[in-house]
């Protein structure tokens, strides 16, 4: 699905990503963790050509990303972070995700509309479809962001801190939503997050990044409190969640 | 969507109504002192009033749609067709022409327009080359280039005005006020052709304009080739603006307010905002032109003065509501 080899990214003369190599298979859920400024967003953005690659190779579905046109790439992979403020209605915003499938003078087809409706239903955004994004709470906005990613119908979705600034309720709602959609559609998900326990709970593998280099890539159930401790520079203890028997990490 | 099609029908009816009002406005027609000769009336309508109303509609529509495009391109609500220095360039072209060649015949009118067109294209070319390459049509650097160009040309215009004679200064100033003067049939044909081609091309980019107005990140992840699209939109709008400015001079404010009025009724979606802006801009300029022709009769006020004053007043009323 995603194959990155010796990837280097420099922005404004500063080396952000230093020779990274990794592989993500179809249907995998990979969480990207690491301190602020580690380069998590930059990697995700480079895969969608939002940030240019300086050197190295990045392949999506066996093809170098530089070989894709914008629309071709956008039908395979998309990047989702917080939606910036704007005056569009929720439904309009989600419809814009059909861009890769539109030709210049055609309007939305029945199929496009169905995909939009379906994405809104899954994310529980239909109820405020006609409201403007600016009038929504952060939790609602984040669900709209997820809905627009889904409406784009890509094989891969890259989430960049989809649940940041959300209260515990919305935080679990978004994380669960992403997990369920990933399972039901068999898409590939990469999720850059600071919510370590959600990462441990939902992902197949965890890739840790620090100063533009990969520190470790492990199956989620193999990550130890020592791994987290050395990654973030604070102490962690590892415990078993009595409810779902998954491992949780508590910061000391 | 039903509500929008009704609104569009209303807007088109309004447009036709103001076309009609613009054509009959003014004391030359149906005056009590004679003019009952129907062939004279027909001449006035078809040779003077109709071309003038069409010019006003095209100019208003062009400024409005290009304003709407620039507001998306630069993600800036006060971007206008003249943000990128087109007005400065056109005025400079006219200044140089009037100061160095004193041709006042009909040929002079044509050459003045031509000089304005060249000046506008000159500013467009400067912005183009300053923004291409590594900067890949970054909106902020384009706006900065536009501002710099406007200052640069203003300086040059002042310099030439300082060195030239009083009569030329008056003519230059008069031109920069902007007006819908009688234009030749060929000039009308030229701006109509550019206008129609431009409308079709800009409408082609409506989906891109929606995404570009949100953010680069969203645009790219939805598949928009942002540098290429910005470049094309910039070139199309600039040619449209240059063609109109060359015959009317810079008519301020319509390009800023018309898209805002249109989006108030039709929303931000460029699929509707583009046609709505065109009609709104046309209507505004038709009204302003009718006022400029009648308010000080028999003298005529440059329409740029009316549009700027009326636009500012109208806009403050809307803002405070």
What's the SSE blueprint?
The complex is a heterodimer of chains A (252) and B (321).
Chain A: E1 2-11, E2 14-24, E3 29-33, H1 40-47, E4 55-60, E5 63-64, H2 70-74, E6 77-80, H3 90-95, H4 110-122, H5 138-151, E7 156-160, H6 168-185, E8 188-192, H7 196-202, E9 205-210, E10 213-219, H8 225-232, E11 236-240, E12 247-251
Parallel strand pairs in A: 3-8, 3-9, 6-7, 7-8
Antiparallel strand pairs in A: 1-2, 1-4, 4-5, 9-10, 11-12
Helix pairs in contact in A: 4-5, 5-6
Chain B: H1 2-24, H2 38-73, H3 86-100, H4 106-131, H5 139-163, H6 166-176, H7 185-204, H8 206-212, H9 216-221, H10 226-248, H11 254-266, H12 270-294, H13 303-320
Helix pairs in contact in B: 1-2, 1-12, 2-7, 2-10, 2-11, 2-12, 3-4, 3-5, 3-6, 4-5, 4-10, 7-10, 11-12, 12-13
Descriptive account of the structure:
- The complex is a heterodimer of chains A (252) and B (321).
- Chain A is an alpha/beta fold and 252 residues long.
- Chain A has a single domain, classed as Rossmann fold, CATH 3.40.50.300.
- In chain A, 31% of the residues lie in helices and 28% in strands.
- Chain A contains eight helices and twelve strands.
- Chain A has a six-stranded mixed sheet, with helices on both faces. Chain A has a four-stranded antiparallel sheet with strand order 2-1-4-5, with helices on one face.
- In chain A, β1 and β2 form a beta hairpin.
- In chain A, α4 packs antiparallel against α5 and α5 runs parallel beside α6.
- Chain A is globular.
- Chain B is mostly helical and 321 residues long.
- Chain B has a single domain, classed as ABC transporter involved in vitamin B12 uptake, BtuC (Orthogonal Bundle).
- Chain B has 13 helices and no strands.
- In chain B, α2 packs across α12 and α3 packs across α4.
- Chain B is globular.
- Chain B starts with a helix and ends with a helix.
- The relative contact order of chain B is 0.17.
- The mean pLDDT of chain B is 88.
- Classes of the chains: A alpha/beta (252), B mainly alpha (321).
- Chains A and B meet through α2 and β6 of A and α8 and α9 of B.
């Amino acid at each position: 699905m995603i194959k990155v080899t010796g990837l280097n990214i420099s922005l404004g003369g500063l080396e952000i990503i230093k020779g990274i190599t990794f592989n993500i298979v179809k249907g995998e859920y990979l969480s990207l963790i690491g301190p602020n400024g580690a380069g998590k967003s930059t990697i995700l953005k480079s895969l969608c050509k939002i940030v240019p690659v300086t050197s190295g190779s990045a392949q999506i579905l066996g093809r170098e990303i530089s070989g894709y046109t914008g629309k071709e790439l956008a039908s395979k992979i998309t990047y989702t972070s917080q939606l910036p403020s704007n005056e569009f209605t929720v439904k309009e915003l989600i419809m814009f995700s059909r861009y890769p499938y539109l030709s210049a003078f055609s309007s939305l087809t029945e199929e496009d509309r169905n995909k939009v409706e379906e994405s809104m239903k899954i994310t529980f955004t239909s109820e405020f479809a006609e409201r403007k994004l600016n009038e929504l709470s952060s939790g609602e906005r984040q669900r709209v962001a997820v809905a627009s990613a889904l409406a784009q119908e890509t094989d891969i979705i890259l989430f960049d801190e989809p649940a940041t600034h959300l209260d515990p309720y919305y935080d679990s709602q978004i994380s669960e939503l992403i997990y369920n959609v990933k399972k039901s559609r068999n898409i590939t998900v990469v999720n850059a997050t600071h919510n370590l326990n959600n990462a441990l709970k939902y992902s197949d593998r965890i890739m840790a990044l620090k100063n533009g280099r990969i520190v470790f890539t492990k199956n989620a159930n193999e990550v130890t409190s020592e791994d987290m401790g050395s990654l973030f520079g604070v102490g962690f203890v590892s415990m078993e969640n009595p409810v779902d028997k998954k491992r949780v990490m508590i910061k000391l | 969507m039903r509500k929008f099609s009704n609104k569009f029908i209303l807007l088109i009816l309004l447009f036709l109504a103001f076309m009609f009002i613009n054509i009959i406005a003014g004391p030359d027609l149906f005056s009590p002192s004679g003019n009952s000769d129907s062939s004279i009336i027909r001449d006035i309508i078809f040779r003077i009033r109709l071309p003038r109303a069409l010019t006003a509609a095209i100019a208003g529509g062009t400024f409005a749609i290009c304003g709407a495009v620039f507001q998306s391109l630069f993600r800036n609500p006060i971007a206008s067709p003249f943000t990128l220095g087109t007005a400065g360039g056109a005025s400079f072209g006219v200044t140089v022409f009037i100061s160095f060649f004193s041709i006042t015949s009909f040929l002079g009118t044509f050459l003045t327009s031509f000089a304005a067109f060249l000046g506008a294209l000159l500013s467009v070319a400067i912005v183009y080359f300053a923004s291409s390459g590594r900067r890949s049509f970054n909106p902020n650097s384009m706006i900065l280039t536009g501002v710099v160009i406007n200052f640069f040309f203003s300086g040059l215009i002042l310099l030439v005005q300082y060195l030239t004679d009083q009569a030329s200064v008056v003519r230059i100033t008069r031109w920069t006020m902007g007006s819908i003067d009688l234009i030749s049939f060929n000039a009308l044909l030229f701006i109509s052709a550019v206008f129609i081609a431009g409308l079709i091309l800009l409408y082609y980019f409506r989906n891109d304009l929606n995404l570009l107005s949100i953010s680069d990140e969203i645009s790219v992840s939805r598949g928009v080739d942002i540098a290429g699209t910005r470049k094309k939109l910039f070139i199309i709008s600039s040619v449209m603006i240059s063609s109109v400015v060359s015959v009317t001079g810079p008519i301020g404010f319509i390009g800023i307010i018309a898209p805002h009025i249109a989006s108030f009724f039709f929303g931000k979606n460029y699929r509707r905002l583009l046609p709505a802006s065109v009609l709104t801009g046309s209507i505004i300029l038709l009204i302003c032109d009718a006022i400029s022709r009648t308010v000080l009769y028999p003298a005529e006020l440059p329409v740029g003065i009316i549009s700027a004053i009326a636009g500012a007043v109208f806009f403050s009323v809307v803002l405070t509501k």
